[in-house]
């Protein structure tokens, strides 16, 4: 693996720091230009993005283009459309006398030099969407793609300097061993997408320099299927979320709590849809992603082997190609091996639980990034929302809260700090600087302010 040397990391940091200090990334014209170029960078390289994603994880074109390409281009267009309004000064409420008579405003200033680090499962989207937010805010930045999606990393390192401002946006490559050096720099903001374990390392390193962070972390997102759910639709949507990228999605359904009265029907429907999505008898469908590397393949394999649950579907594995079929495990208890960590793979544990039990189990774990409730009952929806916490929620479907425009995407507690997408991402890279410009004539109002202090002035 070809990683950036420490001296080149130093050079990249110095270059983007110097560029920021020239103030030339602050005008909207620079930001708009870079956003347009980002859009074209994706447009011109769609075929290659598709190829490297297939190489790295056997990801099918349909998934690659809809998320890693269209998602990024959509974020560019949203930023281009709204940038002026996001970046405009805000006037506070004018009822306070200071606000009323001065030109009080909140300026949106770029935080400065950002470090953006990403995970491997959506290697383009997880790097370029935060980059779009940082560009929109007027920051300069260093991008650190995940080394595990190697072909994607190499393509990113190749195309970014060809399209974007080389003095303001640099790519460095590194594995965990080189991160100490990168994180020892004084960044003005770190945007990290990855696991909760590594997120804690990043947070601790950032604290040494009082650097602000956005941490987009993992979580064990549950789906709760109650007796009042539309069972066939619930099974179809959960199977589809688990099939996508072979379950290697931060927002995927980690496990399902299903009411015992509808479990049989639910599992039959899950099997039907997994069969359908795999195109029937095909053992290794060409349109299904593989596990990213041997370490993750072996981890999933071990968790499945140690499980006391009953494998009722799938579990076909091929260590050579890292194919791991969608797998349903029934009768899983909260103490099972499959419940010890975020699965981040195509295994779907099923736990018998009433709604109250599902809520109680869920609240025993860290707050997940996503939570899915399947029910047609309004009272049950309210109960799920009011008695649990998670980064986001989709009711009666999966993943969709991530795509809702104008909404924040992020975790809570162990699943993350901060949120992005659209205006929320812009804010993560922006310092809100309050400015009060006081006219001289206000002396008339201030005469009681100055010493010497007297009882008369105090009473006025
Ligand atoms: P990871 O935490 O292992 O790696 C993420 C990044 O951190 C990579 O760039 C990697 O090089 C770097 N890194 C790894 N070890 C490090 C260390 N010791 N010190 C400093 N940097 C280090 O995560 P991953 O395996 O790439 O991705 C999977 C995880 O990411 C899952 O937990 C998943 O839920 C989470 N994730 C979250 C989101 C989100 O938006 N919240 C999106 C995708 C993935």
Automatic annotation (TrEMBL):
Boundaries of the shown chain within the full protein: 1 to 460 of 659
Q: Which organism is it from?
A: Cylindrodendrum hubeiense
The protein's UniProt keywords, in alphabetical order, are: Carotenoid biosynthesis, Oxidoreductase
Q: According to its record, what are the GO cellular component terms?
A: cytoplasm
Task: Tell me a Gene Ontology molecular-function term this record carries.
Answer: aldehyde dehydrogenase (NAD+) activity
**Which residue numbers delimit the Aldehyde dehydrogenase domain?**
5-435
Q: What class of enzyme is it?
A: oxidoreductase
Gene Ontology biological process terms in this record: aldehyde metabolic process; carotenoid biosynthetic process
Q: Under which EC number(s) is this enzyme classified?
A: 1.2.1.82
Lineage, uppermost ranks? Eukaryota, Fungi, Dikarya, Ascomycota, Pezizomycotina
**Family from the record:** Belongs to the aldehyde dehydrogenase family.
The entry's protein name is Beta-apo-4'-carotenal oxygenase
């Amino acid at each position: 693996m070809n990683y950036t040397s420490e001296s080149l990391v130093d050079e990249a940091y110095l270059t983007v720091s110097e560029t920021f200090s020239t103030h030339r990334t602050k005008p909207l014209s620079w930001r708009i230009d870079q956003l347009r170029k980002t859009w074209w960078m994706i447009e011109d390289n769609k075929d290659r993005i598709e190829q490297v994603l297939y190489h790295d994880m056997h990801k099918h074109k349909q998934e690659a283009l809809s998320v890693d390409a269209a998602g990024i281009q959509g974020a560019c267009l949203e930023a281009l459309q709204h940038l002026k309004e996001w970046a405009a000064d805000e006037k506070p409420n004018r009822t306070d006398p200071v606000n009323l008579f001065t030109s009080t405003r909140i300026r949106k200033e770029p935080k400065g030099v950002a470090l953006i680090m990403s995970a491997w499962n959506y290697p383009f989207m997880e790097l370029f969407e935060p980059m779009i937010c940082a560009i929109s805010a007027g920051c300069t930045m260093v991008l650190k793609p995940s080394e595990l999606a190697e072909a994607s990393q190499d393509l990113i390192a190749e195309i970014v300097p060809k399209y974007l401002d080389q003095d303001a946006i640099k790519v460095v490559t590194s594995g965990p061993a080189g991160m100490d050096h990168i994180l020892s720099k004084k960044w003005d903001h770190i945007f990290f997408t990855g696991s909760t374990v590594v997120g804690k390392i990043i947070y601790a390193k950032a604290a040494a320099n009082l650097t602000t962070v956005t941490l987009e972390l993992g979580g064990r997102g549950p789906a709760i299927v109650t007796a009042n759910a539309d069972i066939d639709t619930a099974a179809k949507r959960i199977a589809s979320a688990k099939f996508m990228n072979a379950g290697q999605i931060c927002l995927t359904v980690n496990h399902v709590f299903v009411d015992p009265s509808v479990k049989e029907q639910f599992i039959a429907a899950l099997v039907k849809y997994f069969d359908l999505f795999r195109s029937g008898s095909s053992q290794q469908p060409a349109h299904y992603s593989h596990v990213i590397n041997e370490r993750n393949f072996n981890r999933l394999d071990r968790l499945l082997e140690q499980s006391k649950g009953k494998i009722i579907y799938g579990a076909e594995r091929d260590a050579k190609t890292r194919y791991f079929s969608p797998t349903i495990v029934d009768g899983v208890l909260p103490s099972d091996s499959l419940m010890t960590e975020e699965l981040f793979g195509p295994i779907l544990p099923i736990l018998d639980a009433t709604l109250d039990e599902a809520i109680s189990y869920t609240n025993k774990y860290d707050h997940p990034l996503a939570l899915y409730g399947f029910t047609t009952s309004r009272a049950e929806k309210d109960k799920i929302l009011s008695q649990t916490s998670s980064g986001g929620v989709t009711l009666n479907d999966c993943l969709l809260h991530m795509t809702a425009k104008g909404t924040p995407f992020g975790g809570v507690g162990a699943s993350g700090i901060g949120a992005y997408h659209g205006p929320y991402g812009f804010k993560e890279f922006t310092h809100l600087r309050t400015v009060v410009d006081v006219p001289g004539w206000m002396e008339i109002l201030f005469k009681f302010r100055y010493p010497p202090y007297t009882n008369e002035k105090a009473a006025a």
